[in-house]
Amino acid sequence: MKSSLFIASVVTGTILVSACATTQGPKPGTSMQVRLMQTTDLHAYMKGYDYFAQKPTSDYGLAHTAVLIEQARSESANSVLIDNGDVIQGSALGDYVAGEGVSYLTQQTHPVIAALNTLQYDVANLGNHEFNFGLEFLQATLSQADFPFVSANTFIAPSAESSGKKDVPFGSAEPLVEPYVILQRDFVASDGRTHQLNIGVIGFVPPQIMNWDAHHLDGKIQVQDMVKAAEHYIPVMREQGADIVVAVPHSGLQNFDHYPQFAEQASLQLAKVAGIDAILFGHQHRVFPGASDYDGLPGVDNDGGYIHGVPAVQPGYWGSHLGLIDLQLRYDQGWQVAGSQVSLREIDERTLAQVDASVANAHSETLQRLNQPVASLQTPLRNHFAMVAPELTVQLINEAQQTHGETLQQQGILPTDLPVLSAAAPFRNGSQGASDYTSIAAGELTLGNLSDLYVYPNTLQVVRVNGAQLRDWLEMSARAYEQISMQPESNEWLLREDVASYNFDIIRGVTYEIQPHHPARFDADGELIHSRHHRVYNLRYQGQLISRDDEFLVVTNNYRASGGGNFPHLDGSLTVYQSAEQTRQLVADYLRQQAAMNEGVLAPELDIHWHLALPRGARALMQSAGSAAAREEAAQLRDIEYLPDYDDHEFDEGFAVYRVLP
User: Fold this and answer.
1) Which PROSITE patterns does the entry link to (predicted)?
2) What average pLDDT score do residues 345-359 get?
3) Rounded to an integer, what distance in angstroms lies between the CA atom of residue 188 and that of residue 195?
4) What is the four-CA torsion angle of 328, 151, 499, 577, rounded to 10 degrees?
5) pLDDT tens for residues 110-152?
6) In this structure, how many other beta carbons lie within 10 angstroms of the beta carbon of residue 75?
7) What is the mean pLDDT of the chain?
8) What are phi and psi of 163, to 5 degrees?
9) Would you say 201 and 179 are in contact if contact means Cβ atoms under 8 Å apart?
10) If you average pLDDT over each of 90-104, 205-219, 232-246, which comes out highest?
11) Is the pLDDT reported for residue 360 higher than 70?
């Protein structure tokens, strides 16, 4: 497998050489300007196109970023273009190609790779979502690139028993792709001559891929800690002639009192590894410098763009920004970094026609597939308030999963003596802007709408839990709320900003209430911090209180079952069934079946099986979309009040403030 995963002309220490470099070395004091350009977390958004609304957008898309790339290149004679992963999954375009499988790639180039080839990328790093579609699909995709992919902490497992997150000696396993490359470039220096510069580029992926995509990787892949991989390979890169070293971790910033091996967010710690001259990071879908989340982190200059003195940049997501690091080099017995400047450039309405053209056929095929009808929808599906009240979007996913679990019981695949429950979360809930909510109008429901309803290419898994574990599952979801005081009439924000909506699971088949005036029982890592406190009460099955020892089957997705979100007990050990079929397809089949039983009409009824129990008189506020659809939904919910005149809050364009009533 390894031989076909990377370009034959680029191997560790093998350089792409230009013949025009001068044979005369630079004199001491000669300077050189080098520009590093980065994209990250493109998630297969190649065109500036909103596949949910099916209309062009200038908010994201590589076709927009490409204009900035061409402009930045024209300003610098010496530039390198690097992508930092999560590039082939995320949009309907990426999902369409993955759905067609490897056979599609035997006939034509993956449109994402075609776009990157068009822009002449120099190197790319593997992100965690590159593994979502399996190793065979990944292998076929990477083989079409005109540039190398790197990952220094991902290896082919020598045996099934050696797979997983392993602290093993380097060299005991074969790299999945090249750990690093050393690009030899002929760049113009201050003396007017062209001189050779060896640019080392090393990549890293979160070790959590072994949890998130265990069904694809178990028995096949072995991952090492990112910092350990850097400490091993960077001295080797220097020995092999790298003049500068660029680290490209698909990993964000997080401070630890004691760095835990195999951490997901390790860029802060990577910056301490000797020999790194620049860091191009990603994964957290934020900008750096500038994101408020990074204010106050030790060693982080969130204004200038430095981590422990190393220049670093993170250019958002979906092509929203281009990241730039301009290095000033000086020659003195080798090229040394003498200065640097970090900047971000935000896209506008301009696009590069060549990128649009490179994906035109696949884009057209994607739209044809998205517009295939599933059913006629009698009522709108909206999730603007899914984290504070029951609504239909999550309910339909849960119904589909629960029904499939019961079918597996009837087939004898799952134990028949245990109740089947289902857990699902609201995926689109404003994290990417005020339009990032599921809002499907009544009328024809298409496959494209299902991409809106269920965003990720998850597969279905079933776990077996007892009553105590089930309650802990819901307690971890209840972290989504701030602790509301018992003082009446004081305005308090209800939802925590650091809890993603996809980590707020709603479990169907039981009834319960959440009391957010109590402290959260678990921290972000799933560690117990308040053993005497609970937020989840009155947890019942068929009207009876659930005891610690009651047992259930819970249908969920591969991300949650294998440890995604750090939910207590859910580390893969409780899984009793795994399916290779995408959950989205199961939902589509279920909705078709429901509509077929009602003359093609889908008319779901809302099931109120959980609720928030706020203190009497509480002034609990939340931010959601200010659109007409959101306000209409709020008016239909008895517990939500739109506050049109609330002005004691700064929020992004398109949002509004609502009160959640006790």
Assistant:
1) 5_NUCLEOTIDASE_2, PROKAR_LIPOPROTEIN
2) 97
3) 6
4) 170
5) 999 999 999 999 999 999 999 999 999 999 999 999 999 999 9
6) 10
7) 92
8) -75, 165
9) no
10) 232-246
11) yes
- The gap between the terminal CA atoms of the chain, to the nearest Å, is 58
Phi, psi of 493 (to 5 degrees): -80, 130
Report whether 570 contacts 522 (CB < 8 A). no
Question: What single string gives the DSSP state of each residue in 78-127?
Answer: SEEEEE-S--SSSSHHHHHHHHH-HHHHTTS--HHHHHHHHTT--EEEPP
Residue 309's Cβ-count burial label (10 Å; 0-12, 13-18, 19+) is exposed
Element (H, E) at 642: strand 640-642
- Residue-level length of the chain: 662
Give the separation between CA 287 and CA 431, rounded to whole angstroms: 14
Got the DSSP string for 434-484?
Answer: TT-B-EE-SEEEEHHHHHHHS-S--EEEEEEEEHHHHHHHHHHHGGGB---
Cβ atoms of 36 and 246 closer than 8 Å: yes
Angle at alpha carbon of residue 254, lines to 250 and 257, rounded to 5° = 135
Q: Contact, 435 vs 384, CB < 8 A?
A: no
Evaluate whether 275 touches 35 at the Cβ level (below 8 Å).
no
**Beta strands per DSSP E along 258-378:** 278-280, 287-288, 300-301, 306-307, 310-315, 321-331, 335-346, 373-377
Return the residue matching tokens 């396993």: 173
3-state helix, strand, coil in the chain (%, to 5): 25, 30, 45
The whole-angstrom separation of Cα 440 and Cα 421 is: 26
What is the biggest distance separating any 2 CA atoms in the chain, rounded to whole angstroms? Answer: 85
- Could you give the CA distance from residue 187 to residue 191 in angstroms, rounded to a whole number? 11
pTM surpassing 0.85? no
Q: How many CB atoms within 10 Å of residue 606?
A: 13
User: In 10 A of CB 59, how many CB atoms?
Assistant: 16
| Cα dihedral value 554, 558, 561, 567, nearest 10 | -120
Specify the DSSP class assigned to residue 635: H
**Which DSSP symbol is given to 619?**
E
Contact 367, 375 (CB under 8 A): no
AA letter at 605:
E
Distance, in Å, from the CA atom of 212 to the CA atom of 481, rounded to the nearest integer, reads: 25
Q: How many CB atoms lie within 10 A of CB 465?
A: 21
Q: Which two tokens stand for residue 151?
A: 């990952």
Give residue for tokens 């308090």: 492
Q: Is the dihedral of CA 435, 625, 482, 424 positive or negative?
A: negative
What are the tokens at 519? 């402290």
529, 532, 533, 609: which is closest to 568 by C-alpha? 529
Residue with tokens 């106050």: 296
Q: Which amino acid makes up residue 501?
A: S
CA 250 to chain centroid = 10
pLDDT tens digits along 431-472: 888 989 999 999 999 988 888 888 887 889 999 999 999 999
One-letter amino acid identity for 621? L
User: Over the Cα atoms of the chain, what is R_g?
Assistant: 26
Burial class (CB in 10 A: 0-12, 13-18, 19+), 570: buried
User: Going by DSSP bridges, is the β-strand pair 287-288/278-280 parallel, antiparallel, or unpaired?
Assistant: unpaired
Residue 364 to residues 51, 360, 506, Cα–Cα distance (Å): 11, 6, 36
Reduce the DSSP state of residue 494 to 3 states and report it.
Answer: coil
Beta strand 381-382 with 164-165 is unpaired
Backbone angles phi, psi at 133, to 5 degrees: -105, 10
Closest CA relative to residue 144, chosen from 89, 203, 96, 88: 88
Which of these, 390, 396, 387, 407, lies nearest to 553 by C-alpha position? 407
